[in-house]
Amino acid sequence: MKIVSYLNVSNPNNLLADSGFVLQKLLLETLSNFGHEIVLLAPIEAQKLTTVKVIPIEVPLTKYHARFDFDWKSVATSTQGLWNNVDILIVNQVEIAAPLKALTFIESQRDIPIVSYVHYLPIDSINYEQELIYDSSLNDVGLGSWILGTIKTAIECADACVVESQFAKELLLTKIGNPKKLKIIHPPIEPELQSLSQVNPSKDKIKILYNHRLYAHYGTAELFDWIDVALKGHENDCEVLVTSPRGKRTQNQCNLDVHSEKVANAICSRPYVKIIEAKSRTEYHKVLETIHLGIAPLRSAPLWNLSIADVLATGRPVLTSHSGAFPELLEDSSEYVFFDRDEFITKLYKLIESPPIPSPTLAERICNKFHPTNIAFQWEIFLLETLNEVPVSSKKCIH
Question: In 269-388, which residue ranges form alpha helices assigned H by DSSP?
Answer without folding.
Answer: 281-290, 306-313, 326-330, 341-353, 360-369, 372-388
